[in-house]
Specification:
This is DedA family protein. Belongs to the DedA family. Its main location: membrane. The protein has 210 residues and is mostly helical. The chain has one domain. It has 9 helices and no strands. The chain is elongated, with a radius of gyration of 18 Å.
Length: 210
């Protein structure tokens, strides 16, 4: 199997987008941007359907946001504390909130996904703050569409303008997106603290992470 051949990636990219973008909702280091941008580059090369890539990316982003939001809104996030890996994820969520802030405004729900860790922070903070399900769902959906358009469009633009192999266009797109995200993240988070500013209701039967 030739992993540099666009035909190889074009037939598999649809299967990767949903689980990777969905997983990124809880564990931000998962490279969802790379997969979605690669999808855009493949679309520019004629080896993937642009609109299907866009739909899958937006749907997976919205679904992941809703999962995190409901986890905290229903006060069942302590379930994570039953396993060591879950406690690490739980601590990571609060670290993301500490860095990105606890804002649960509708504007933050839409826009924070464009900074590192912002998607996880706003979804969990909105759940803790008891934002309405309908309001969060609509804003998360709009944010997911905007994010998908940006990521897929970035891959498509680099692929169609550079005329390089899809993997090279993908790397360029990821680099550009990473630089922009880091700059925006530094501007937004430079005054944040190191401790999560939110407190969750505590279930006394479940041990808290150390």
């Amino acid at each position: 199997m030739d992993f540099t051949a666009p035909e190889t990636w074009g037939s598999a990219i649809y299967l990767w987008i949903v689980p990777i973008v969905l997983g990124d909702a809880i564990f931000p280091p998962i490279p969802s941007e790379m997969v979605v941008i690669t999808g855009g580059a493949l679309a520019a090369d004629g080896h993937a359907n642009f609109w299907l890539i866009l739909f899958l990316a937006a749907f997976a982003s919205w679904l992941g946001d809703m999962a995190v939001f409901m986890l905290f809104k229903r006060r069942i996030s302590h379930v994570l504390d039953r396993w060591s890996w879950g406690r690490r994820i739980h601590r990571g969520i609060h670290e993301a909130i500490a860095k990105a802030g606890r804002s649960s405004t509708y504007g933050a729900i839409i826009g924070a996904r464009f900074i590192p860790g912002g998607r996880l922070a706003t979804s969990s903070a909105a759940g803790i703050a008891n934002v309405s399900v309908r309001g969060f769902s609509l804003c998360a959906g709009l944010g997911a569409v905007l994010w998908a358009v940006w990521q897929v469009g970035l891959g498509y633009f680099t692929g169609s303008t550079t005329k390089l192999p899809f993997w090279a266009s993908s790397l360029i797109g990821v680099g550009v997106g990473l630089v922009i995200g880091v700059v925006v993240g530094l501007i937004v988070t430079r005054r944040r603290g190191t401790r999560s500013p939110v407190d969750e209701p505590y279930d006394g039967d479940v041990p808290q992470p150390e």
